[in-house]
Input
Amino acid sequence: MPIFTQLASDNFTPDANPLNPANWTVPSGFNAMQALSGRCQDNGGGDSQSLYTGVVFPLDQYMQVSLNALNVGDLIELGVRQDAAGTTSDFIDLSNNGNGTLTLSVFNGDTNPALYVNSTLPFSFGDTFRLAALGSAIYVYHNGALLTQQTEVVPQTGVPAPSISIQGAVTNQVSVFSAGSVSATATLSGSVGAAGAGATITLTGTSSGTTTAAGGTGNFSFSGLVPGTYTVTPGLTGHAFSPTNRTVTITTANISGINFTEFTPAKSGSNSGGIMASGPLFATRIISPNTSITGTNLGTEIRK
Output
């Protein structure tokens, strides 16, 4: 499964027409889109498209939006690896069938036939759709669940940038845009605190390894991890950690905040008052109502 790292987001506030030009670029021949009440929509000029160019994305990238409104017969298009002309990308088309279902089509380039079509996809407004490209693979998610995985026929190597295109009425809307990079492996990171600096951190599970907590901070990380379940265990002579280990599952995102608290365990032999006993211990055994003998051997009964 791909690992997603968010690099950009837009909640489409405040209202703006066109979308913030510092982040969104309009390809030649297309109209801009506008932000209105936290939603992205056509600005009334017809076929609209905008590319998110506010950050530099790697070629392996994803984008996600929530679908808020789509009239029957109209079209919303979501793309990744989009070129500056707005004509080359991996993209999905969403079309409202009017009966509680969508037709969702996956394309690899504007001139190629659809790689996948689902003409009866149940949906509700507010659903999320995510499109990702990793290597030659195209992934489509609906509400966080993988809907389909396809393979590029023609490699797409545009700007590259994620894009949104809306065709039809101004009332077709999406919201809560996010986008970022996609990788095949994840990073797991955490800390044992400055007092635990130098600790050996052991990773077991789907893959295994060890690393050393950084001096001064106690931070540590493991990279190149495939999705799976892992157990992290810190160790340092003369120190203990709480919890003793932590188990985490990597699915589609990097994992951070795997933290431990270092403490020095109490030495054996100390009592609740914090006084360490040293030297022989004395005890008195009562032999008779009138006689008592004091000795240094706690396990021996001394009789007169």
Summary: The radius of gyration is 31 Å.
